[in-house]
Amino acid sequence: MRHSAHVIGLAAALGSGTLTGIERERRKGGSSGHALAGVRSFALVALSGALAQVIDFRLSLMAALLVAAFCVISYYRASADEAGMVTELALFLSLLLGVNAVANPALSAGLAVLVATMLNLRAPLHHFIRVTLKSGELRDGLILTGAALAIWPLLPDAANGWLLGVNPRRM
Fold it and tell me: Is the overall model pTM greater than 0.70, yes or no?
């Protein structure tokens, strides 16, 4: 791989980690309690993942184990008020995005935007699930999702005589 491709991948990794880190930094705000990581930590983890991938893919595995260990330690050290593991998962995902950025910088950058957006939409998502979404709507959505994800891929992708020559996947 050319050096310019490595630079693009490293830059995408740094940007991806920084974007997620900015969101997490704002989430922790001015809290004086325990905080696993902020903007610098996320950026460094993503960049470390990319650099490890450039040097040797086995180093990426070691980096993943190290970040996973940090996340486990942080999760168990957190107080009951800080229950949850979203930041730990986001930190590990930042490492993976950094590793991926070496070969697929655009994909990692796009996924980082989606991750930061999902993290940022915490309150609206919780409100939608707990208040707006009614029980029947949830059931109907689960049935539709189940059909789309479990049944549709199993349908034959060819015209069938029993359906008068119609392709079931195209219906």
Answer: yes
